[in-house]
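Materials and Methods. Structural model of GH16 domain-containing protein. The 700-residue sequence of GH16 domain-containing protein from Tetraparma gracilis was retrieved and submitted for structure prediction as follows.
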Amino acid sequence: MIHAVVLLLLLPPLCLSAWVDPSTPPSQLTATSFLDSASYTLVMSDEFNTPGRSFSDGGDPTWTALDRHDDDISASGEGPLHFYNSSMVGTGGGWLNVSTGRGRTEWTEFDSVEQVYKTKKKDFKSGMVNSWNKFCFTGGIVEISAVMPGSPTTAGLWPAMWLLGNLGRATYEASTNKIWPWSFDECDRELQHAQEISACNSNGHWGLIPGRGRGATEIDILEIMPGAPGPLPSTEPPIERPYGAMTLQVAPGVPGNRPKSGAPPLPGNDGHNGFAPSPPQDWYEHLNYMGNTSINPFFYGTYLAETKPGEPVHRSKLEAFQADAVGAIHQLRAVHFQKAHKYRLEWQPGNGGRIDWFVEDTQPDARGRGEHEHDFTAAPTPAPKEEEDSESEDGDGGDGKKKKKKKKEDKHATPAPTPAPSPPPRVDTAATPPGWVHAFSIVDLSLKEATRAQIPDEPSYVIFNTAVSSTWGFPYDTPATCKKCYDCSDPACACALPPGFCDTLDAGKTSMLVDYVRVYQTDEHEKHVGQKHTLGCDPLDHPTREYIKGHEYLYMRSLPFIDKDPLKPIANGGGACSADSDCGITGSCSTLSKESFWSTSDARVCRCGDAGWTGPHCRSHAAGDDEPGAFDIVLNTSWFTSRIANLYLPLPVIVAFSVVAAVFAGAFVATLQKKRLSGGVYVGLTQAEMTPRYNLRGRP
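The predicted structure was written out as tokens:
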């Protein structure tokens, strides 16, 4: 990493964003679009080279790892089986490690329906880390290098890399209710009640722009479905497990005559073949599936119905709406679970924009899993030279995407015979460089024609997580005698768990390993379709901070957890240490008594001796926005004060400044004493100095 920093200093000056990791290789400071060959500049990166970083709330300026259960659950009880624990996220060996394992978590929660406190439990713990309300971007290129967790042939894990609009906080369903996944900027009186921030709103409360529809659209860069081999019906070309789902989740959705889960959109029947005439099913046109990629016939979206008692949010019948999942599934192979592969999203936002997904072909020299993948103190290791995986391009696996919630749908059942789907449209892939597959693309026209929605233009943040859900790869046709439980240590629960799942957890390779994440943008807007790129969670044309500030309770945990604010301030040192080596690259370990005039404690804590590093153990790059956001501009001074709030001043400097200030104050008081009134005049002042220059009205 030191070499990379030195090379950065020797390069010609580039206006690098403060979000750029200093250890990013100089060769990666720019990127070329795979669509139009335009040059983009790096605006954010994290190489995860510093071991032992803390991602718990307040521990990192870019990322926050969650400590909470997952709200994404229906009244029927289907949904998450995990508890997100920040200890399951860390850095070591040059990886960001998002782990999953066995481990019961229990807590007491108030049941608003029965009006009693109940003990809740989860049998698995896992990690989610995201950059909500810290780092956001609108449009550009995001590239991630990662190794998928677990076994490619064992179901149960649900790893994902995705983007979500900053107005919604992932897993906090109170914040996403009627916000997710809207991308609709027209006033439609029939849809107005279902969209919390509608274009029909003529008043701009909370800093929002009047007449602009807002939401929190979801762009899934990749969601992984592992599992036992077997062909998937209704896919063209044929897809098996493991596969990666690439999806835009958007509202409003197609209102009627929708495709049925497990079957492709039917073309319609004019009655000449003896069957009753039927119109073609409504779905999106102008979608392009390339390489070994098919439409995802197992998940077309979610109907968010009127809620029932016991659900974490409330929606009336008038507020119910359809959300669509416009997606594809791309064939993966076992090597994606063994070596790092690159995944790229090119996103041109808003009206006239588009979204394109790219996947790297197998690379024999890619970094693979190693002995330090779970060691959060290990330094990065060089990429090992390993033999290329010998499996065919067809790979293994097969299954469909879960339906998120609310409207019950048998998404796994083999459908009745249907007419063979028409071959998906293909596009010219000549611009895609060797080693990459242009897997899927969506253009704005597709959304406009179907529902009048648009390609997302919301400031969005990055999320890495692995979930364990009864709706993702778990048995759905268990016998009536099967006990509905998910405890790996209870033999009676085995029938409700995927075969081999518990053994996979015990094997210890259930970590999603992220080598790096890099985001590129360009300010030459004429070089791309769609609207301009912006950096920050609170851009002037799509503000979010004032709205979040006015609705903080939606973005905080409910009881028994007690949050004073949605996010804690970033710690600048203060982590326990025994030596300087515990305090990052430039930090030092000292006693509290040396750090504070008021403390006599001999406890040793880290002191971040360089303003470029922060966190409790000074291991995080002090990233942040370069420009003020919309709310900062309203407050006028908050951006300046926030920049100096984390400014580090050594203790001797503080003491010296205090002494100088005391001396100055003493001299000032002494001067006033000399100028006290004596016989009706001030001593030391001339008559001219005492002559009033202004009358009572303030005029000369």
